[in-house]
Amino acid sequence: MQSKRFTKNDSGFICQNCGAAVPPLSYSSRDHCNKCLCSLHVDENPGDRANTCGGLLVPVNAQPDPRKGFIINYKCKKCGKRLRCRAASDDDTDLLIKLTAEEL
User: Does the predicted TM-score (pTM) go above 0.70?
Assistant: First the structure.
């Protein structure tokens, strides 16, 4: 039997990087701060919270995508793993645009 690749997990949280209160997203699972765009390395598959690393995922750049808005590229400060995530509708657009000029 194949396991699910996505687990809905749309809880609000306090950002471990900037301290902002991040509200639930309501249309999908919230996985990063909408103010500083940082996240935690806690998922094996989206929403499952099965990864024990727990390191801070920092955005290293963003890529515009005509169908999905922006794709944020992350690097874990603890283990170095690189991950990608679709930006949310309420993410800081100025920061996303600034990140499109950044190098990986």
Answer: yes
Beta-strand runs (E) in 23-81: 39-40, 56-65, 69-76
- Tens digits of residue pLDDT in 23-36: 988 777 788 999 99
Nearest-angstrom CA–CA distance, 83 and 75: 6
16: its two tokens: 């471990």
Domain limits, the chain: 13-96
Burial of 46 (C-beta count, 10 Å sphere; 0-12/13-18/19+): middle
pLDDT(80) > 50: yes
